[in-house]
């Protein structure tokens, strides 16, 4: 079982790594985890990302084609790759400071679910269930719902860290404001601005200069976006705990594991 878990973990890592390379290219990021982004080092990074995806399915076939859950494993990997692709495309399409009316919480949640939750949380959680030969559809629906909520919360934390995080600790230089990204902070700021603040925001959001970035941060400060974010995080935390508690008693060990996942990421430094 441990050997299978390690192999599936490698497959997840390959797929996630591919999308990280692509994400950095789309965001024009400079660093990730304290080092230069791979596309800044390797001119053929886009081709190598494609190879990583290919290797994922090659490895899966080589080691699991005789496994009774092989079809399920393939299906979830294909689904996650598709959802992540859609999420990344949405992220790129919504990156338009001239189209702020499209920056809504519903679109944001769909984007965050696709680009983050499926690959980072839903995939490994459901793989664990298949590894334990747990194929009950209701269980997988519950696991997907919980992991999706955790993933969206995780993405909102990333949005917060991009603006307020310490680059020396995160290893990544924030680019969301200069790129005009649709983030949790921006979506909620837009619904709390007065007309003058919105006019100023439109003039400076998406501009690649320090003065504009500071002006946008100043508007965030005026509308107390930090306090709103922490209030939201606490509410979502309680909502996820409530969702976890809905699982059948016979799966209490799985519920405990999901609680641990939530605690691990909810309490990360921001």
TrEMBL record:
Lineage of producing organism: Eukaryota, Metazoa, Ecdysozoa, Arthropoda, Chelicerata
Segments crossing the lipid bilayer: none
PANTHER family: FARNESYL PYROPHOSPHATE SYNTHASE (PTHR11525:SF0), FARNESYL-PYROPHOSPHATE SYNTHETASE (PTHR11525)
Gene Ontology terms describing biological process: farnesyl diphosphate biosynthetic process; pheromone biosynthetic process
Gene Ontology cellular-component terms listed: cytoplasm
GO molecular function term, any single one: metal ion binding
Record has Ligase as a keyword: no
Name the UniProt record assigns to this protein: Farnesyl pyrophosphate synthase
Cofactor: Mg(2+)
PROSITE patterns the record matches: POLYPRENYL_SYNTHASE_1
Involved pathway(s): Pheromone biosynthesis
